[in-house]
């Protein structure tokens, strides 16, 4: 049987551990995306609901564990006091009513907060900016149908303006989620689901697939880039232009290589014969921040690594190892990075 001092020490350890766990969401917010660091009205509503439920659950935990520890300590068998069992009784109506009523009232409170939050999140404000989100194994495609823009990996939105999402999939079920901006929405083949966001401040926010979708599920990320209205209009105007013509000899050679090889069967570059639809549109590849849905950053050295052997970087990806020479890779890197 635990001594009193040991019981007090263990109670302190358990309480300290609980406080550490409760403080984790705030402490890791700077390193990774978390719903506890919201940057949109919908995300704030969801965060507030989670906080309410978290504290209710913490209170229930403290009460239940406190009663358990008290009962173990109060009714323990003390040395030299072993004897017959205490009087056995069947039930206690007042206590049974209490422990039935109290959880019911707690659940009613949770239900009210949940329904109110669901209504607020589901009520999308009117907007004229729509983005079709298509999940692929393993990357995200973003189409702006009213603007004539198709991109991948980077989702640009204007600060302070609602954006409606139409979400689907080109292969298996995915889930579209940016923890700091909006909740999870399934991307299902043959079906359109809807979500929305209105970002409060300029910045870059991580998004990911929240539904296991194959071997590279963990490498299916995207970035939400919230631009000021002026910067967003500049981005739109740039994206609406055809692909830039290469200006260096190395980039010109890269264009010839691209258009004369298997690249054109999978990728589109506007203004060229390359009109493939299997992989991402590369018209403005050089302006993006990610390669292969976040497996690499968009930098010449990372692009070189990707072209040398995509299967080594992201096993199972649809892009095969084309066994390109180092010279050909340098030419392609120069061309693709020039597509701003």
Tell me what the structure shows.
There is one protein chain. This protein has 340 residues and is α+β, with helices and mostly antiparallel strands. The chain folds into three domains: 4-78 and 90-122, Helix Hairpins, CATH 1.10.287; 130-239, Immunoglobulin-like; 249-337, Cupredoxins -  blue copper proteins (Immunoglobulin-like, Sandwich). Helices cover 40% and strands 19% of the residues. The protein has eight helices and twelve strands. A hairpin with a 2-residue loop joins strand 1 (130-136) and strand 2 (139-144). Helix 2 (41-74) packs antiparallel against helix 3 (93-122), helix 5 (249-259) crosses helix 8 (326-337) and helix 6 crosses helix 8 (326-337). The radius of gyration is 28 Å and the shape is elongated.
């Amino acid at each position: 049987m635990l001594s009193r001092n040991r019981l007090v020490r263990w109670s302190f350890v358990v309480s300290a551990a609980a406080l550490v766990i409760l403080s984790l969401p705030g402490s890791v917010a700077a390193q990774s995306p978390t719903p506890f660091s919201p940057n949109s009205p919908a995300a704030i509503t969801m965060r507030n609901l989670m906080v309410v439920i978290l504290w209710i659950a913490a209170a229930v935990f403290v009460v239940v564990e406190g009663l358990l520890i008290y009962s173990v300590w109060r009714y323990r068998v003390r040395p030299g006091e072993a004897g017959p069992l205490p009087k056995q009784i069947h039930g206690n109506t007042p206590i049974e009513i209490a422990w039935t009523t109290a959880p019911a009232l707690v659940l009613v409170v949770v239900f009210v907060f949940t329904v109110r939050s669901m209504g607020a999140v589901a009520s999308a404000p009117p907007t004229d900016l729509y983005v079709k989100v298509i999940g692929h194994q393993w990357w995200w495609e973003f189409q702006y149908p009213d603007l004539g823009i198709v991109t991948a990996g980077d989702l640009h939105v204007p600060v302070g303006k609602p954006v409606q999402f139409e979400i689907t999939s080109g292969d298996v079920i995915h889930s579209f989620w940016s923890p700091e901006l909006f909740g999870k929405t399934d991307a299902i083949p043959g079906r359109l689901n809807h979500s929305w966001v209105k970002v409060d401040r300029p910045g870059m926010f991580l998004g990911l697939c929240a539904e296991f979708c194959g071997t590279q599920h963990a490498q299916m990320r995207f970035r939400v880039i919230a631009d000021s209205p002026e910067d967003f209009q500049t981005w739109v105007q740039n994206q609406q232009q055809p692909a830039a013509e290469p200006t260096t000899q190395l980039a010109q050679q890269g264009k010839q290589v691209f258009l004369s090889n298997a690249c054109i069967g999978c990728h589109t570059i506007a203004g060229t014969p390359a009109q493939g639809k299997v992989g991402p549109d590369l018209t403005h590849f050089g302006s993006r921040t990610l390669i292969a849905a976040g497996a690499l950053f968009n930098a010449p050295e990372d692009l070189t690594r990707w072209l040398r052997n995509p299967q080594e970087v992201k096993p199972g990806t649809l892009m095969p190892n084309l066994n390109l020479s180092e010279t050909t890779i340098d030419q392609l890197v120069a061309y693709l990075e020039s597509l701003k």
